[in-house]
Each structure stands twice: as C-alpha cells, then as structure tokens.
C-alpha cells in the first residue's frame, strides 16, 4: 500500500496503472511525501529509473570492496587489519541490502549482475582509481565515504520505501567508514615527515575525483530533474557537492593537510566554501571505460563471480532442502 510506512496512517488505495487518474494520484502521493511500496502500481519509467539507480548503487558497493580489499593483508597493524576487514565486509552488506531492494521492483539479482559483467550497467567511476599506499585507505574513508554519506543521507527520505529504509542502516555504517578514514589520515599527518607526505599525496589524488562523485553540474544532468520530481533525488548534484565541500574543508585543517585547490576559500557573504572549476573531461573518460583500472576491476569481479559458482549452487541446494523439510513438517 501507499503511505509513509507508518501504521497509524490511513492506507490510500493504489489506482491501477491504466486508470486515467493514475498519474495524477501517483504524483499527489509523491507531493504529499508519501512512500511507494513494492506492491503499489507505479509508472513504468519510475520503476525503471529506480532499478537503474539502485542497481548502479549496489554494483558500486561491491566493486568498491576491491581498492581497499587489496590492503587487508598489508594493513600496518592487527587493529588496522580488523577495522579494514569490518569496513570491507560492510560494503558487501550494503550491496546485499541494495540488490534485495532492487528485487522488490521485480528484477532478478542474477540478471543485474549479468548486466554489470557485460557492461550494460555501470558502477561509480571513483573505484577505477588505484590505491598505491596505505594513506589511500585513509583518503578513501575520509573523502569517498564522506561523499557517499552526503549523497545518501537524503535517500533515506526518498519516495521508494525499500530503498529509503535500506539507506538508513547504510548511512550509519558509512559514518563509521568516514571516521576511520579520518583517523588513519590524522595519525599519518601527525607522524613522521614521510608519513605526512604520504597522507598529503593521497589527499591530492583523491580530492578532485571525490568532487566528481556528485555527477555533472546541474545544467548538464538530464536525469536529475525527473528524479527530483519523483522524490527519488532530494537535492541537486551541485547542492550536494557544495554541502560536501563545506563539511570537508574545515576537516582538512583539523587534519593538518591541504586540499589541492588554490581557489578554495570561505566566503563569509554566502557562508559557503568557494572551490575551483572541476575538469569533468577526466570523469567522462573514466565513465567511458578509460580510467586507470576499469579493465582490472571488471576482470577481478567476473573472475570472483565465476569462482563463486559453487557457493551459489550450495546455497540454492540448501534452501531447496530446507523448503522440502518444512513442507513435510
Ligand atoms: Fe557502502
Ligand atoms: Fe563505505
């Protein structure tokens, strides 16, 4: 049923998608900040847009395990290793919640993975950059997870119930990720001169790609207006990017590290940080598949998928056996 997922609210009868009043009633629900639930009728374009967005988000979570996963065996202490393992495992969990949320829209998880593996669906370009030093793990947590939180907190209020609810838990875990990244960088920044230089180098490399995580500028973002009209997206790319810069710039001072933008300055009139122009040609190259590690990430993913075949087979066999036992009992 439609509603705010609040048991005290009065259920609204969902009109059928071929009812002439359907679009008007659907938009009235959205305007009323109601939630759309899996069994509700919804415009086909709304469903398809959500599948695309949730799948891309899920793919990003699992591909995002790779740049950091490669550091689990090389983390500088047992404590760091345990923290990093927990973080990478969280990302697998985020993928799981999101594939499950996408499945409530009538798609099959195996099909979504197939679309990823054959290049028909994308993942976030940020994960095509390399992680050559331990400081990259700090920079990813601080900047990449920080940008992810900024993007994702508004999705906890999005119009599609299962996506919004999945995002509540994800955001709590992302804030732990951001803190652990900040703490790694803080330790390095206040360590030896070499450690400080390593932290600064990682921040220099990750800053601009992190800003690009918010997508193209608003004037250049064709899907944004429709997503906002449907209550899937709550703020524009540029608004979210500004929010991220406002949060991060003061934190860089606390870290004792600089951000690689000579134009970055606090504007007392607007209360916001101004930043320099972003060179999006690089982002578009990475999206086209020409980033530093696109091919390697996909090869690793498809290989892991093939090698995991026996696990999926065993899980399905176990579930079938369990269903038979339950039917007998
Ligand atoms: Fe995540
Ligand atoms: Fe994360």
What would you say this structure looks like, in words?
The structure is a single chain. With 329 residues, the chain is mainly α. It is 63% helix and 2% strand. It has helices at residues 22-31, 44-63, 65-69, 78-103, 109-117, 135-152, 161-189, 193-212, 224-229, 237-255, 280-290, 294-307, 309-328, and strands at residues 265-267, 272-274. It has a two-stranded antiparallel sheet with strand order 1-2. β1 and β2 form a beta hairpin. α4 packs antiparallel against α7 (161-189), α6 packs antiparallel against α7 and α6 (135-152) runs antiparallel to α10. The radius of gyration is 22 Å and the shape is globular. The protein starts with 21 loop residues before the first helix and ends with a helix. Mean pLDDT is 90; it is low at 1-13. The structure holds fe (ii) ion (2 copies). One fe (ii) ion binds at residues 61, 91, 94, 170, 174.
Write the layout of secondary structure elements.
Blueprint: H1 22-31, H2 44-63, H3 65-69, H4 78-103, H5 109-117, H6 135-152, H7 161-189, H8 193-212, H9 224-229, H10 237-255, E1 265-267, E2 272-274, H11 280-290, H12 294-307, H13 309-328
Antiparallel strand pairs: 1-2
Bound molecules: fe (ii) ion (FE2) (2 copies).
One fe (ii) ion is lined by residues 61, 91, 94, 170, 174.
What is the gyration radius calculated from CA atoms? Answer: 22 Å
Name the bound molecules: fe (ii) ion
* Mean pLDDT over all positions: 90
What is the rounded distance between the termini?
33 Å
């Amino acid at each position: 049923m439609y509603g705010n997922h609040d048991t005290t609210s009065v259920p609204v009868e969902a009109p059928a998608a071929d009812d002439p009043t359907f679009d008007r009633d659907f938009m009235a629900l959205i305007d009323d900040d109601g939630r759309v639930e899996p069994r509700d009728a919804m415009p086909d374009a709304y469903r398809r847009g959500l599948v695309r967005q949730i799948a891309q988000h899920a793919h990003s979570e699992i591909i995002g395990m790779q740049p950091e996963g490669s550091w689990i065996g090389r983390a500088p202490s047992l404590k760091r290793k345990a923290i990093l393992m927990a973080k990478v495992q969280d990302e697998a969990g985020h993928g799981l919640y999101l594939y499950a949320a996408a499945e409530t829209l009538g798609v099959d998880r195996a099909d979504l993975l197939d679309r990823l593996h054959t290049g028909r669906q994308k993942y976030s370009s940020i994960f095509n950059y390399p992680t050559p030093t331990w400081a990259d793990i700090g920079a990813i947590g601080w900047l990449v997870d920080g940008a992810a939180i900024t993007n994702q907190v508004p999705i906890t209020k999005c119009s599609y119930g299962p996506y919004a609810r999945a995002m509540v838990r994800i955001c709590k875990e992302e804030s732990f990720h951001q803190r652990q990244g900040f703490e790694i960088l803080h330790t390095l920044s206040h360590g030896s001169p070499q450690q400080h230089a390593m932290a600064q180098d990682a921040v220099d490399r990750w800053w601009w790609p992190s800003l690009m995580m918010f997508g193209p500028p608003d004037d250049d973002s064709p899907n944004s207006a429709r997503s906002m009209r449907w209550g899937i997206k709550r703020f524009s790319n540029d608004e979210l990017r500004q929010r991220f810069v406002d949060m991060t710039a003061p934190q860089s001072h606390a870290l004792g590290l600089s951000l690689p933008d000579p134009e970055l300055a606090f504007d007392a009139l607007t209360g916001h940080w101004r930043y320099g122009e972003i060179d999006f040609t690089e982002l578009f190259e990475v999206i086209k598949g020409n980033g530093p590690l696109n091919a390697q990430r996909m090869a690793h993913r498809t290989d892991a998928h093939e090698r995991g075949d026996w696990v999926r087979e065993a899980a399905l066999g176990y579930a079938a056996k369990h269903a038979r036992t339950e039917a007998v009992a």
